[in-house]
Amino acid sequence: MAQSKYLKYLNVLSLFDTKRTRDIFQINPTVIPQREEAEHIHITVFDYNAEQLEEKVFDNVAATYPFRDNNKISWINIDGIRKKDVEAACSHFGIHYLITEDILSVSQRPKMDDLDPVLFGLLNMLYFNEQTGAVETEQISIVLGKGFVLSFQEDANRDVFTPIREKLRVAGSKLRTSGADYLCYALLDMIVDNYYLVMEKIGERIEWLEERIIRSTNKRSLAEINALRKELIVLKRNVSPVRELINGFIRSESDLLEDKTTKYFKDIYDHIVQASDLAENYRDMMINLQDLYLSNVNLKMNEVMKVMAIVTCLLAPATVIGGIFGMNFDKLPYIHHQYGFYIAACLMLIVPVIMVFIFKKRGWF
After folding, report:
1. Same domain for 198 and 347?
2. What residue numbers bound the domain in which 137 lies?
3. 181-239 tens-digit pLDDT
4. What is the reported pTM?
5. Same domain, 330 and 232
6. In this predicted structure, what is the pLDDT of residue 43?
7. What's the confidence (pLDDT) of residue 4?
8. H runs (alpha helix) in the chain
9. Looking at the structure, do residues 95 and 208 belong to the same domain, yes or no?
10. DSSP code of residue 26
11. Sequence-separated (6 or more) residues with CB below 8 Å from residue 11
């Protein structure tokens, strides 16, 4: 693969920034975090059955109230979290106050709750930032009720549900002819499928980093390994608990889930198990990369020590000869010979050449 393809993933300053570490690990569930409320909310409603579809946009939660009991399936997606709007919507749709607290929470662990008369799932959508090489998260809450699905998102500018919207606009599609439980499945399935897109990006970076470490090893390589390990922590933290969430839907005995829909949730379960295993494999690969880096560093050090040892050995004869003829005695062989210096110099050159020949023959270098 072309190296230029991966250069855009690297940000030199972010490799040595400890802020990313603080963002990942400074999560205290005993402290109630302060959520920054959205300035505006954007509400889209898909109200449909097999024959008809109405697609509407609102900026007021009260406008969604008529869609609760209209004998159609309604998907109400609220982009932007504001306390008063969430509480008003939950109150009208009969959602338990514990679920309301979870929707308003920050950095919540993925979970599933069966609180009559609704089913609730909370998890994170994952995105890969091409500029910083970081895995970004967005918390989404999905509430399944009788004839409706409520979804609460933090960011109005992005989500992964565009394919679902396109399918809803197609008359006679599986989504249009199925109930609200199938819509809930489709939303969860789309989120899980997007995990693989993020993991592919990380896999490409691991592959490129492995090739780079094999070719040349330096301190930057170690910084990149540590940066990738942080992103894998984020990935593992958000992917693994989703298995319990999907399993909760499979084991639920709620009347909101039809028996024929359960097999679809089992399909998501298989996907999330595979994603979790893949994340674990990536973690093992990063450990192997770190071992490879250390092995290359030790190999380079051994090569340096080998060269220094050879140079020392080659200089040893000259040192010995120079030391002998440099002794302060009156009588030394060839000390007063007219060619004594040249004889000593020749010995200093001939002996190392012979040593080089012997070393080469034995394969020492």
Report:
1. no
2. 4-296
3. 999 999 999 999 999 999 999 989 888 888 888 887 777 788 888 888 888 888 998 99
4. 0.78
5. no
6. 93
7. 45
8. 4-7, 12-15, 19-25, 83-92, 97-104, 162-168, 174-177, 180-215, 219-239, 242-251, 259-325, 340-361
9. yes
10. -
11. 131, 132, 133
The residue out of 266, 296, 326 marking a domain boundary is 296
189 and 331 belong to one structural domain: no
Cβ burial of 95 (10 Å; 0-12, 13-18, 19+) is buried
Q: How far apart are CA 338 and CA 324, in angstroms?
A: 18
The gap between the terminal CA atoms of the chain, to the nearest Å, is 34
Are 83 and 16 in a shared domain? yes
Listed range (142-151, 212-221, 260-269, 311-320) with the worst mean pLDDT = 212-221
The pLDDT tens digits for 140-150 are: 999 999 999 99
Q: Which of 107, 124, 99 is nearest to 240 (CA)?
A: 124
Amino acid at site 22: R
Q: What is the number of domains present in the chain?
A: 2
Residue 67 main-chain phi, psi, to 5 deg: -85, 5
* Residue 242 to residues 22, 303, 317, Cα–Cα distance (Å): 24, 48, 70
* pLDDT of res. 301: 85
Distance of alpha carbon 7 from alpha carbon 304, whole angstroms: 30
Last residue of a domain, one of 296, 328, 346: 296
